[in-house]
């Protein structure tokens, strides 16, 4: 059963999730699995594998987030934004993608789960102009660090930072970041039962 499996995985982390949050994460996987058959939202087909590769891979970032207003760029079906929003109801998340079917999926999840802290936005990131800058700009499987920073340079608030979720770190990718930015952190993320390396790279603008 998905709920038992999720509880087992969460117990292997330092995270403390309520019963409601765990139920919502399972509902998210069920919706992802249902919509995936028609809309091809993810190449991961097995719901149990989605728990590890999508849900756990996203929620482990939560303790690293600083601030309260976040945007997830190139969010696809809401990853990592939806699991993070479920687990961090005190923070708000704009989930942005250029593809309408992905934003329609996210909107359905938001209504079905009653999430109050998620705003889905269909736009190319380069064209999106927020009224107020974000404390954090999140991305997973979106673009190279260099491209992401060039396309998203206008999104953080003055004190804000970028959080890029990466697999194995490529020193060249870190060295190639555009001028005007600096890497302020790079750390491994522990995702239970994932057979691959995961890292979080933090970048900020240099003033
Ligand atoms: C490989 S998917 C990753 C989705 C999700 N973040 C994940 O980890 O599963 C990349 C997503 O970025 C979106 N995308 C690519 N370029 C974009 C742009 N310039 N503006 C907004 N979204 C973009 C695509 O539509 C796609 O959904």
In order across it, which strands form the biggest sheet? 3-2-1-4-5-7-6
Element-level helix/strand string:
HHHEHEHEEHEHEE
The number of helical segments is 7
Helix coverage percent: 25-40%
Low-confidence stretches: none
C-alpha-based Rg, rounded: 16 Å
| CATH fold type | Rossmann fold
Tell me the structural class: alpha/beta
Roughly what fraction of the amino acids lie in strands?
15-25%
Distance between the termini: 50 Å
Q: Say how many strands there are.
A: 7
Q: Write down the CATH class.
A: Alpha Beta
Function: Specifically methylates the N7 position of guanine in position 527 of 16S rRNA.
Catalytic activity: guanosine(527) in 16S rRNA + S-adenosyl-L-methionine = N(7)-methylguanosine(527) in 16S rRNA + S-adenosyl-L-homocysteine
Enzyme class: transferase
Main location: cytoplasm
